[in-house]
Structure formats: C-alpha cells, structure tokens
Amino acid sequence: MLEKIVRAALQQRLIIVVLAVVALVAGLDAMRKLSVDAFPDVTNVQVQIATDATGRSPEEVERFVTVPIEIAMTGLPGLQEMRSLNKPGCR
C-alpha cells in the first residue's frame, strides 16, 4: 500500500508540489492570523452573573437578586474576594 502511494507521488510530482505550496500558503496565512498574547493573564478567576429583573427598581434588584446571590456565594471554598456591580439595562 505504501509502495503504491510513493510510486504515485513520484509519477505525479507536479501535483505533489502544487499541494505542498497550497499547504505552505495556508499555514503561513493561519500563522499570520494567529493572535499570540505575549503576557500571561495573571488575574484571579472571575465569575460574572447577568440577571434580568424587568420592571424592578434598582433597590429591588439589589434586595431581591444581588444580595441573595452574594449570600449564597460567601461560603465558596477558595473565595478570596467578592465584588458586586449593578448595571441597569444589560440586554
């Protein structure tokens, strides 16, 4: 089987060269488009929670949504810091 593949490749050299050039161009294009970050991300793991409380005032959202979520998260193992931010109209 391998002998047949090698023999066919030697007989069809032009096709093999064209395929190699196409693969080279595709690889160079992929390398050019690759985004490489030179600096590692050293921030802590963060969790963002987005909730929708239609028809509620900011105080009600704080009281009925944000505070219960914060209370539920206080006992998580490995929790070092917890911050809260409310933004109205996050759609």
Looking at this protein, list some descriptive labels.
single chain; 91 residues; 3 helices; mainly alpha
Secondary-structure map:
Elements: H1 2-11, H2 13-33, H3 58-73
Strand content is: under 5%
- Count the beta strands: 0
| Alpha-carbon Rg, integer | 28 Å
Tell me the distance between the termini: 59 Å
Basic shape: elongated
Helix proportion of residues, in percent? 40-55%
Count of individual helical segments: 3
Structure description:
By secondary structure, this protein is mostly helical. 52% of the residues lie in helices and 0% in strands. It has three helices and no strands. The longest helix has 21 residues, at 13-33. The protein is elongated. The chain starts with a helix and ends in an 18-residue tail after the last helix. 0% of the residues are buried. The mean pLDDT is 85.
Quick rundown:
The chain is an all-alpha fold. It has helices spanning 2-11, 13-33, 58-73. The mean pLDDT is 85.
